Amino acid sequence: MPENPGARQELLVQGIAASQGIAFGQVFLYLQNDVELPDYVVEPEKRKDEVARFEQALLQTRQQISKIQGQVEKNLGPDEARIFDAHLMVLEDQALIGETVRDFEATHHNIETCFNRISARYIKAFDEIDDEYLRERASDIRDVAQRMLRNLLGQAARNLSQLAEKRIIFARDITPSDSAGIDRSQALGMVTDSGSKTSHAVIVARSMKIPAVVGVRDLTQRVNDGDWVIVDGYDGVVIINPSESTLFRYGQIRRAKETLQARLMEANRQPAVTLDGVNVRLMANIEKVDEVALVKEYSAEGVGLFRTEYLYLNEEKMPTEEAQFEAYRAIAAGIAPNPVVIRTLDLGGDKPMAASAHLFGKEENPFMGFRAIRFCLEHTDIFKDQLRAILRASSHGRVQVMYPMISGSEELAKANAVLEECKTELRGRGEKFDEQLAVGAMIEIPSAAMTADILANHCSFFSVGTNDLIQYLLAIDRVNDRIAHLYEPSHPAVIRTLRALIDVSHARNIPVSVCGEMAGDPVFAPLLLGLGIDALSMTPPLIPAVRYLVRAMTMADAVALANEALTLTSPKEIYAKCDAFYRARIKVD
Ligand code: PEP
Ligand code: MG
Hints:
This protein is α/β, with parallel strands linked by helices. Helix content is 48%, strand content 13%. It is globular and about 85 Å long.
């Protein structure tokens, strides 16, 4: 507790509620990408010290990297640790070091400025070389240079996986790879200037049960490291320096919410059956192998979406077939006899893999760009490693494979052809796999929804990625906080598209589930079920609230709600109907 939290002026900021819960704690400002460099001329009498300062920073950086290398070797093995040899070599590069010192001797500008200038020149030169190996040297130098500059400036590198004490993370933006590295036990909450409800960092926060508020614009410029704050992930409010009375009020809110959560968890042991006896299938979305435990804790009927790209995001290189097989096998075996839908790589969009940036290049519109299946069909070596690993895992549980970002039947047929090649290779290697492995397509591009009847000839199930489907249907960038209010799941276009998709699919015996964030929102779940969706897949902590609602409603009422929604014209009106349906049955708040 702060000694006197109300001593400074209380500031309340409204953002977007992104992950439920209330957190109270101190700010940890995570402004990783900005090393602000001072530029000044060093006085003649201090010039000797300036070179010594540079040498000291080289030494310190070398020690830090060796330490990380040791940890990586212990945790992951010598091959992975060898990556850091390249970083250490940068620090021994006499050309880079010598040129920096010569630049200093010529200009007498502070050593950070000189080092930054010279290293930037090297980075640019390597970046422009048409050779993959040499281009990777650019990212080695970039990494090491950032670390050197931080050491020279006496700034500790901030790392979300090593929060020293329980803190609330404040950042301009958090990338999925940042979020994948967050230390769950120490992160109390998350607040970002940008982002929206369906940005991937937020999805990860939700699965970690970390309260989060996004889209608070310039708040990182207005808070200080160590400020006391309340994060209200229910209403999207952030309160800096809360007064005693605010703290008291939030204490009460938090207790009431905890009681509700306990009630929901209690009911979560019951089957998801509506009052008129319809079984509803609730499944889990996961990003990491260790989330198998969550799937069980929240009694999900299997995994409806495993986002495999999280195995890649923080890696220095693409994971091997063997490493992937181990991960998929562990999940398949852990979830059996329930099914696991393994989605093939969906890199790109807001999920860049830093180490493979050169394979993607710089794009103006990454969400419309070289993403997911488009990338995999061009890099079939990477795709095949993954498909073989998935196929092999299929003999250890009930595995299904699903392709992301399918836009038409040719793409789907091409992906299936690569899958067949992998099967032939595995047969040649004498490896076992499920010959009947079910193949599904994500429906998240309008063209796929419109041609579901054609896609149905090439796969046996569909899963609707509403996060993307809505962004493409409504032309609303899903991570842009400026237009987040226009991102409306209750838009008639969304509901009509789902209805048409479900009708076409069911006529062909193709089940349709939803695995976008809409599925885990108890306000929208009845609408989706009423439209005829066969299963809902969501971040595990969202299951209790949806299950509670399913058990408090009849499917007949949900169907009536969907039919009524189809007659309405405004998203707000449709939302109000769904909200009223929810409130009448949940009897809380
Ligand atoms: C979606 O688009 O709804 C989806 C589930 O995929 P992702 O959020 O990973 O893009
Ligand atoms: Mg998607």
